[in-house]
Write a structure and sequence with these properties.
Chain lengths: 338, 338
């Protein structure tokens, strides 16, 4: 049963909570080849009306989001499993004045110079971002269930003996990545492209960023080369690719968003959420999910490491977190490596 | 009165942001225009109407909050300085069904099994928590002001020419560290000590951790050697010290708190907050401040780097963030390195 394509839809932390999230896909295999459609808003109004919550899989009071497993109501997917992710949206500076003028306010508590209120803004100033995965397989659902984390120390040998065979055996689908690279989906979201098949890449906003404000700026560079699974595959021959992504990615972000390179955190994940090389660009000061030292690797360090030793990522013991239910964790445990 | 005491109003570390009990606002669903009636807060409706934003002091897209400095409109405090903190509220499980039924939904994007929407809920299902400090003194205002961050690329030469002279010239006091090592202060807080003058250290809970629960566990190992300022001073000769801190630190935490090493993130900071070598132990899953890839260095990586090259931290370009008001940033700028 091959599958699990992972994508960054949620914004929690932890391991799989990387900037990207893991989304299993493969089981509903027929879906992978389906052409993406965009019929803005047509079916929208009714999609959620009959949605039946089965289980709250995860929620964060800090981040104001919630992950729900449920069944679709009437419509083409009626009765099918779905994962629904809701997240409150950040405040927008440009609508504050209107917010102050038009919101209802209710005093809750007052003490000396401190008071607290409930503010009820008009609907259009306070929307919620909703992400739907439908039909969702059991793997999708499992992936979103919150789980304990374990830190792995993976030697180069562990990678070749355990992790690599596991990745190959799963043959994770990255069809959605190819859809982007081939402009079959999300073409209008592309911020920059260098079409060179060797060193080129597509720069695209991460799903978690709604592009309305810069303080949670988050883009992903996806390389055109299809043979690089992760950090572990990199050698000195990839330096031109990596340097190109760093250089042109930063320039494109400066050009489009006026955010200079000294404000950007540029890094890779290991383990990545999907096994097609990609690089994360997030703005400094934004604690993006997955930017912790236990999972992120600064691109500038990766470049220096390869300049020093082309075998660095083949031989080095790498540390990363895995969720308790991750199949790779079980493989490592079976092999007595955890 | 003025600035007598500080009060914790923000929810930076999720400390104060528990799921808040919401008052069911009795006004009719979807009635944006209804005026709040005189109740506990009779002046409520007008408090914000004339509020003039002076400055956005801080905002977090992740936590969906914003800190605003402004002046009050009409009312008893007209024209006075105020700090207004707005924060979106967490989702409530008990109102999800109503949310699905009554919200407007607008399709934004669709690709394969993934789609995203804007959800417009009725006002009463989506309120905002507002906290007001008024009149606010300059200290209040300064307290909430965030500083811009800049990412520095410091070569080994930059360190020797700019950073090291700066550290020496400032002669930062670490007397409080010596007080701990000599048991002149906080002796009762020590969790573990290896008294060896070369490889020994003291393990002590970080001030940010109140030790009441394990999910934000945070301890610091402070070495007895006094000549190691930071990562930059480390060579292969320090390997026994580093390995000792890793090994015995993890064992002590297992013994005292029953948290195994595979649940611990063990790392150094560069730049550190004080120039006496120390190592951070935080629990996985807790996004401790400063555990981001731009500032943290896993101890296991530091050890491997030194095993490979004793000069690693003397020669390597290191990346780290500095606040706009940091004196070191000005030194680097003067030297044309930023």
């Amino acid at each position: 049963m091959a599958d699990t394509k992972k994508r960054s839809l949620d914004s929690d932390n932890g391991t799989e909570s990387g900037p990207e999230k893991k989304l299993a896909s493969g089981d509903g295999a027929g879906k992978d080849t389906k052409k993406p459609t965009a019929d803005p808003g047509s079916e929208a109004g009714s999609v959620l009306a009959g949605f039946q919550t089965e289980k709250i899989m995860r929620e964060s009071s800090r981040e104001k989001n919630i992950f729900i497993h449920g069944k679709m109501g009437s419509g083409p997917n009626e009765g099918r499993d779905a994962v629904l992710i809701l997240e409150k949206t950040p405040f927008r500076e440009d609508s504050l004045a209107e917010l102050f003028k038009t919101s209802e306010l209710k005093l809750q508590m007052r003490n000396d110079i401190y008071s607290t209120y409930h503010l009820h803004p008009p609907t259009h100033l306070n929307d919620i971002k909703a992400t739907m995965v439908c039909p969702a397989t059991e793997k999708h659902i499992k992936k979103y269930q919150s789980q304990e984390l374990f830190l792995i120390q993976e030697s180069g040998e562990d990678y070749r003996n355990i992790t690599l065979p596991y990745i190959q055996e799963q043959s994770f689908s990255v069809q959605w990545v190819y859809n982007i690279l081939e402009k079959k989906a999300e073409a209008d979201r592309i911020v920059f492209e260098d079409p060179d098949p060797q060193n080129g890449f597509v720069l695209i906003p991460d799903f978690k960023w709604d592009q309305k404000q810069l303080d949670d700026l988050y883009l992903i560079a996806i390389c055109h080369q299809r043979e690089i699974k992760s950090l572990r595959d990199l050698t000195r021959e990839h330096l031109p690719l990596l340097q190109n992504i760093q250089q042109q990615g930063q320039e494109a972000i400066m050009k489009r968003y006026s955010v200079p390179s000294c404000r950007l955190r540029v890094y890779l994940h290991y383990q990545p959420s999907y096994y097609h090389l990609h690089v994360h660009f997030t703005v400094l000061g934004y604690e993006a999910p997955g930017c912790g030292v236990e999972r992120a690797h600064l691109l500038s360090d990766v470049i220096q490491n390869l300049q020093t030793d082309t075998q660095h990522y083949h031989t080095r013991t790498l540390t990363y977190p895995l969720r308790a239910d991750d199949a790779l964790l079980h493989k490592l445990r079976e092999a007595g490596r955890f």
